Amino acid sequence: MCGIVGIYLKNEDLNPELGGFLAAMLVEMSDRGPDSAGIALYRDPVPDSSCKLTLHAAGDYDWEKLRKEMAAYLKSDVKLDVHASHAVLIASADVAYVEDWLRTQHPKLRVMSAGSAIEIYKEKGPPREFVRQFRLHELNGSHALGHTRMATESAVTTEHSHPFSTGMDLCLVHNGSLSNHNRLRQVLRDEGVDIRTDNDSEVAAGYLMWRLREGDSLEDALNRALKDLDGFYTFAVGTKEGFAVLRDPIACKPAVMAETDEWVAMSSEFRAIAQLPGAANATIWEPAPATVYTWGH
Amino acid sequence: MAAFDLNTDSVRTLNQHLHDAPSGTLSVTNPGGRHCIACGIDASVAVSIDGHVGYYCAGMNKQAQVTIAGNAGPGVAENIMSGSVRVKGNASQYAGASGQGGALIIEGDASARCGISMKGVDIVVAGSVGHMSAFLAQKGRLVICGDAGDFLGDSIYEATIYVRGNVGELGADCIEKEMTADHIQGLKQLLASTGVDANVDEFRRFGSARKLYNFNIDHADDY
Q: Residues 204-223, chain B: which have Cβ within 8 Å of A?
């Protein structure tokens, strides 16, 4: 099992409520995924000359030391906000330049997301604890995805948790299991895609990263995934502008979508959407199998 | 009339009440997509649910008349034995799965695998159904007033399927069959008794070619 939730706010006035909406949806999906929880949210895009990264440390970390070192190296101001085991870093520099520096100077850190608006937080443990640790109710944003994991394919660790970054401002959450991920992982590694765990969903994320790098549009990449990925899945893909949803052709993994004048939401089950204001009068439908759905600004 | 508000009453409290020999009518508000609402009833009671329900609503229903004024999640009226379940909105996958008797009426659309392995239930869908509906269906009638998705009636046994709209690719061993006067009469009665308005002359009938399983027509009454 696993639970997926997604919300996209059509009414910007609701942006301060995003974290609270997401928290309610995630907690409602606890039964589907008690092992770990995670979110990707999009807010406050930085200018083109800057980049935003979410970093994860496996234990206590001297974030202030990192901030000062990086500011000295870049000779410019570096902003760093700590959220539990994660920190969001904003620097006026090219993202590859920053990542190279992090890899050599702080090799124990893991980059969870990179881009201009995306922030990814994920941690093992029950969703309710995640919501508390990361103070979800205080987070704003324009749209977000969330995931609650019931591990079936691989270990319960933060690294095995969702969402997975799939490139600049992109991420993936997955409900299901892939059956050809071992072979595909090898193919992707041969293509130079950095895959770190034995998790099947990370392979799906790596696959999208590869296709987008090769020049596919997101829609093309997802349509190609229908041919290349074997298994059961409902995917939700976060983009800077919105999100996309895809179910495999058999579609035994559940998904439901809803829309009002204020928001668009998707979830594994309606009861997560029922937490949102106005859900009772929303237009509700089930996404068709093997069909790409997208929302965006 | 007994009333349960699922924002304050638990589903377990509701279901226990329904199992303790209820009678008359009962209303349920704020279902909020919760699972297993009104499951396992064996009593002549009318239950009306105001809102959307989650998985397995009205599962194993016997005798009761359950009405859902909203959408239903996966497995509505799963293994229904008798009575009726009416969904005023849409139903998710495997609606009426394994149903042995009674009637399931879906006023909107049903998604994939509607009536999978049905064993005697009558399912009437006013809208369309998704792929693999009536998969392994053994007995009973599936009436689809709209369109049917691909692989309709795959590996079907002795159930009967009526479709008014378009049919995708038929499943293995499922073929179109003649609408006899008996079929027309039976369908007319079923549509009338379930309150679904559709012209019986526009339906086509589908069933088993009986090539896929070890079927002996001389023993048809034993099946």
A: none
Considering the domain architecture, whether residues A221 and A241 belong to the same structural domain is answered as yes
Using the Cβ of A232 and the Cβ atoms of chain B, whether some distance falls under 8 Å is answered with: no
Q: Are residues A290 and A177 in the same domain?
A: yes
Cβ of B73 within 8 Å of Cβ of A270? The answer is yes
- What per-residue confidence (pLDDT) applies to A1? 81
Please indicate, yes or no, whether residues A141 and A24 belong to a single structural domain of this protein.
Answer: yes
User: Over the stretch A121-156, which tens digit does the pLDDT of each residue have?
Assistant: 999 999 999 999 999 999 999 999 999 999 887 888
Low-confidence ranges of chain A (pLDDT < 70): 297
At which residue do the structure tokens 């229908």 appear?
A226
Q: Are residues A265 and A255 in the same domain?
A: yes
- Do residue B93 and residue A252 have CB atoms under 8 angstroms apart? yes
pLDDT score for B23: 85
Mean pLDDT of chain A: 94
Would you call B131 an interface residue with chain A, using a CB distance cutoff of 8 Å? yes
Q: Residue A275 to residues A41, A105, A143, A146: CA-CA distances in angstroms?
A: 18, 44, 16, 14
Contact at 8 Å (CB) between A147 and A162?
Answer: yes
Q: Hey, is the C-beta of A271 within 8 angstroms of any chain B C-beta? A: yes
- Domains plus CATH for chain B? 2-222 (2.160.20.60)
Counting the structural domains of chain A, the total is 2
* Separation of alpha carbons A110 and B14, rounded Å: 49
Q: Cα separation of A87 and A67, whole Å?
A: 10
ipTM score for this prediction? 0.88
Of the residues A89, A113, A137, which one is the last residue of a structural domain? Answer: A113
DSSP code, position A288: P
Strand A283-285 and strand A256-259: the pairing is antiparallel
Cβ distance B130 to A289 less than 8 Å, yes or no, reads: yes
Boundaries of domain holding A174: 2-45+117-296
Q: Is the peptide bond before A163 cis (omega within 30 degrees of 0)?
A: yes
Say if residue B1's pLDDT is above 90: no
pLDDT given at position A297: 61
Name the pTM for this structure.
0.91
Contacts of B107 (CB under 8 A, 6+ apart): B86, B87, B88, B89, B126, B127, B196
Q: Which residue has the tokens 């399983």?
A: B213
Evaluate whether B60 touches B77 at the Cβ level (below 8 Å).
Answer: no
